[in-house]
Amino acid sequence: MYRTVEATRDLLPDEIGPWQTCEDTARSLFRCYGFREIRTPIFEFTELFARSVGEQTDIVSKEMYTFTDRGGRSLTLRPEGTAPAVRAFVQRRIHRSEDLTRWYYTGPMFRYERKQKGRFRQFFQIGAEVLGADSPVVDVETIEMVLHYLTALGVSGMRLHLNSVGCRACRPPYTDLLRQVLDPQIGSYCKDCQRRFETNVLRVLDCKVDVDRAAGLPVLVEHLCDACGEHFAAVRDGLASLGVEFDLAPRLVRGLDYYVRTAFEVTASGLGAQNALVGGGRYDGLVSQLGGPDVPGFGFALGLDRLVMILPEEAGKSPVADIHLVVVGSEAMRRARQLATRLRHAGLIAALDVTQRSVKAQMRAAARSGARHTLVIGENELSAGRATLRRLEDGVEAEFALDALAELVEEIRHAGSR
Ligand code: AMP
């Protein structure tokens, strides 16, 4: 028997409801904030991720699904969505026609990570990018949109963690300082931190193993340059003025190299150890780094797999049939088929039972599927030209002429809106 590859999975129809709710809600809500959808290829040249996400990051150094195609080119299944979006922005020269670009995307991402609860090798993200403004208003609006979105879906126990990771002016002197402080003690840190000390020293701050020790290290927010300090203050004020609560998280650094200034994460309860639901921040140098003009950017990505895990149960239940047509005999099937088609054209979910089993067995199947009504069509109904609609919830019945479609639709709709 063939099986799915480790840490990947099928999403069966019974499981898909909450996914669709999340996607539909994102579409309608993000539109109110001026975001439009972009779809980029699932794979890109490896170089794109190496240059943007960063050679030394965990993602690029050990998690990418990289392969060589028949033309000998090194390609990679996208591990994240920002680099492809920025690549598209540069390649299509969007800045020439738009002052401010707001894009969102949704789709699968691929990372060879250790398998654990809430962590997959193919996982799904919804993300958004704002390109063209370094104003803190963009940071505030976009963060507020994420929280609005999660609230609209009924997510509870969320926390916004906020930090500033400085810029190319103030980060290097700070990392020098951090190295100096760490140098005499790094030997006693975990293996990963010892490696990070050499390659990406900021990441030592958010080590999950050496949490207590990292707590004593100097933090970047206390070494921001004036411009970054002002920007961060404006973000905090802006959020506060919208009533958005946040926790300052001075040790929050993101695992991708391109972030500057604002960095944030949203966590939610009920997720266990992998409790990060959204990650994002500002990436002002990325567009030019990828060969484009000097256009600032801000964005986030939200993990759909994790969001679905904590969605309230009523969100995204799979739809059930409005009516289950129980059919006996071939002539009745002909008539029932026409009726089912008309009901579907009227926007109702009509299930046509094609099994030709006993009425009892078909009724049982209807009840099991959660259908809201049944309508039996057999020889008697054909000769009378009438059939009985039964509401399964309470057994109430009503008789209809088989050609009085409008009345039937009306009754079913009415029952559905109660
Ligand atoms: P990142 O792109 O690493 O900033 O991640 C953004 C969000 O995507 C995280 O907060 C998670 O919710 C989700 N995410 C990242 N990696 C995985 C994974 N391997 N499996 C499931 N969700 C993930």
Task: Describe this protein's structure.
Helix 5 packs parallel to helix 9. This protein has 15 helices and 16 strands. Helix content is 37%, strand content 21%. The strands form 3 sheets. It has an 8-stranded mixed β-sheet. The two termini are 47 Å apart. The mean pLDDT is 93. It is α+β, with helices and mostly antiparallel strands and 418 residues long. The chain binds adenosine monophosphate (AMP). The site of adenosine monophosphate (AMP) has 17 residues, from strand 6, strand 10, strand 11 and helix 11.
What is the overall number of helices? 15
Give the strand order, joined by hyphens, for the main sheet.
1-5-6-11-10-9-7-8
Estimate the helix proportion, in percent.
Answer: 25-40%
Low-confidence spans? none
Head-to-tail CA distance between termini: 47 Å
Approximate strand percentage: 15-25%
Chain-averaged pLDDT: 93
Radius of gyration: 28 Å
Tell me the major beta sheet: 8 strands, mixed
Bound molecules: adenosine monophosphate
Shape: elongated
Quaternary structure classification:
single chain
Class by helix and strand content? alpha+beta
What is the β-strand count?
A: 16
